[in-house]
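New to this. Help decode both lines:
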Amino acid sequence: MLGKFFTVDAPFLLLSIRGEDEAADDEYRAVVRFAGLDTTDVHRISLTQQPLGAVDLSEWSGIILGGGPYNVSDAPESKSATQLRVESELLDLIGRIVDADYPFLGCCYGVGTLGTVIGAVIDRTYPEPVGGMAITVTEAGRGDPLFADLPDVFDAYGGHKEAAATLPTDAVCLATSPQCPVQAFRVKRNVYATQFHPELDLDGIDVRLDAYKNHGYFAPESAEQLKIEARQWNVQHPHAILRRFIERYARRR
């Protein structure tokens, strides 16, 4: 069980796109736990329930964007009014974040949104099934403060329909996998996105398999088998990425 290891002067902002309460609450608890903070240090805005509103970047230590069922590459006519609003708000905010080189960590959906802002090709060429995956740190990743000292190859949990097929030349690929060439990347010095979920552990993937069994990621009847298969992976290192993000950017007391 991880505990709080320092207090911050400015909290982190977690943006959630999950409309399913159990999955959204589990994501929030996981971010708090693996960050080594408590709920006073991580403020959540549930974008499916309320507009983003004005965000003053100076009020936060950094911003974390969670994952969820949205895909920026979905056909516009298939997107709900809520998804269209959320994407518009996020793309505008992430544009400001990139311009300011402001601390940002986008988990899964962050690849699609940040990738769209910087001109990456986001499509469905490289999907991955829900479950465990082997992540390989690139040579550039070896020198990155969030990925340095991690094993060359480590297990993670994920699952996605879209991904970055190509990155612009000014983005740095930090990690890859056999089925998805861009598992993590950095823009400028402080703006990050991961395709895998650095906040996800075994209990969390069980919650999400239940929450998203009818969202087209997998056959609903296979959920219990996927839970069994998830137990074959030793997922411990991705959480260090989240914690290092917090350690690097927290304004501490």
Notes: Residues 18 and 68 are 5 Å apart (CA to CA). Residues 12-249 form a domain with the Rossmann fold fold (CATH 3.40.50.880).
